Amino acid sequence: MSKDNDYTLASLELSQAQEVIPGADQEMYLKALKEKESSMFKFSQFTERGKNEALGPDKDFAHDGFGTYEDKFSERPIIGELPTYDEIYKDESMQYILPNRTSVRRVVLSKSTLCIGAEYDLTRRVLGDKIPLDEIDGIYLSPHDETSFFIDTIQDGYNSGRKYHFRPPSDTLHAWVEGIRFQTDDYQARKFSTTKWFRTKAKKLYELSVMQSVVATLIMLNFVAIAAESQLQPDEKGDLYKRMRQVDVAFTIFFTLEICLNGFAHWLRPFLTNGWNLLDIVVVSFSLINLLRIDALSFMQPTRAFRIFRLAGRITELRKIVHSVGQALFPMANALFIGLIITCIFAILGTEFYSERDQKNFGTFSRSFYSLCMVTAFQQWDTQIPIFREDKSIDFGVLIYLVLLVFVLVWVMLQVVVATLLDNFVSATTRTYQEESISRLDQAETMNIDTGGLEALCSEVLKLFDTSDQLSRGIKKIFHKLDFDRLGRLDYWKMKEGLKKIHLKKTIEITEEDYNILIENGKASFQDRTVNLPQFERIIRKQLKMHVQRDLTDVMAMVEDTVEMRVLMSSHRILHINDPTEYVKKIREEKSVFLRDIDLFKRQLHADIDRLISLQGTLIKRTASMANSVSQENFQIAHLNDFESNELFLRAEKTDRDLEELTGAIRDLGSSVQGNVQVASLASDILKKFASPDTPGPPGTPPPVGGQRGLEGGGVDAPQDGKIGTFSAIWDSHVNASSPPPPGGSPPAASPTG
Fold first, then answer.
1. Rounded CA separation 286/279 (Å)
2. Element (H or E) spanning 505, and its range?
3. What is the pLDDT of residues 543-561, one digit of tens each?
4. Please, what's the largest Cα pairwise distance for the chain?
5. What is the pTM assigned to this prediction?
């Protein structure tokens, strides 16, 4: 059985054990099963990566990238997943045709999108690409074979006007085309309906700062009017009472219209999940009931005073305080519950011990409970509680009973309740401050310049890896997400289109200027301004480092009042800055190695030239000697017998072969020398760019080496004695000398250059 199956069985055992095994045994068994499940989960993750790597480098798209525990707590993965089965309308594997290749992908049609699965995804869950249905511009069959269909998208949309080509099985082709058309028409009708348009306008109107200010002002005026009515107590038959009733009706109508506008603008779930909206509904409902003037519900009229609480939802600082108090009440309720239990215990004891002596205060449980509440409020003990007997002596039993009650409830539990309230209030306030700090940091990131436009991606990536190896897998996963046509290269347009599709809090829209910053104006890319996977990984790692440096600067500005944090942030900034001394040292080491290689190359070049000239001299001499010998032998051949003439011919042929082999060797050596001369000239040009031997250039440029002398000026010294200058003449002389002499002619004379 595989480890993946073991992990599944461990999860199943864990769920079953929670229902079957009772008591303490269940706790121990569940603990062991959770440890087993955790270990199996880790192995399952490793196995998934191992399976991806086993596909080979051409098919391993690192779909397991960023598969750490941190990713489980993120809002959503940066590389999306296919819809779940309850959201799927159609699901089938089909051919996805690209301009340069065709692959089989899982295609899923949901209520709002057409999703394309990732290539070589063993889990069949990773999202490769998607087409929002509201951005489909057209869907039609292929005019060539009618076995496939095309989908056009709008130019300024999610897919930047790309055309998609699919070939499903022949028996489902028309079902797919009709299904996509139906879902597209239905979704576009719902999204672009008149109601949707009015709802968008209403939301913009309601969220205007002017609108919120008017509502807050009217809430305060209504509270003042209610307070004035309570103070003046006007006669119901008088004019003042009628005017105040009219004012109250006007306020109620306005608040009703306001909550209706809010509900229409944020329909439905966003409206009902907001606690402040629920408070508004309750308060306005009570106000509407009061307008009916029903005698049985007259007790609800004072609820108009609660309208002032609606003001807390409009003023930021009030909302923070109310929110913090609300979060602190629930933990405080636990301490209050314990105090209530202790009070009930003392009330039962008081009823049992003192009911016959004092029926008024301890006759029943309720009377004892009320008396103890009076005691904890430090009311009159001597007149209400029977501490003194009739003979004026002290009843120490009652005294100890009451003192113990005060000590437990007032001096212990009350402090616990207050401490719990303060602790949770401070924690809630701290969380609110942290949320504001994150918002301020995000705002500061948007104000940074020359960032390359990847701030949102860097912020999310920093949460999703533990080790450098995990980061490399995650970067590889992002690269293959952007490289949709599998060419192994990314350019500006592929990166711009792909980054929009990564799931982040803020959509990334890079410009050509941002792309130039990322590739360092071509230094970090190929000549055609494209990048491969290693270059892309170096770019992302550099951007992550720069993002951390910018965040340190922004956070340091946010904690200026805290000396310790400012010093700590300053130290981190210094540690992240490159040391120029180390940089200069590295450049000088590279310079010394470069100079040593150039010196060895010069020596080898001179040795090759000397050897070539020596071989050419030998060749010229042997050629002249052979030519004279051949001429003399041809002159004497008529006087030789057949045996001797055949032997001479064989010797002549052997000599010609030796001569051809020597000529070929010299020709190859000459080509090698010419290539070395070109390399030396190129090295000389490189050396000319150095400013001086002791002063390193700016970062990113080679160090100066050996002054500005080239082959012509002596930087890489040219061969002395005119050896290169005489090479062409020697070669011409050799070619002329090696040419066969004309019949009956005389041997060629040796060139004077030789």
1. 11
2. none
3. 998 888 888 888 777 776 6
4. 175
5. 0.59
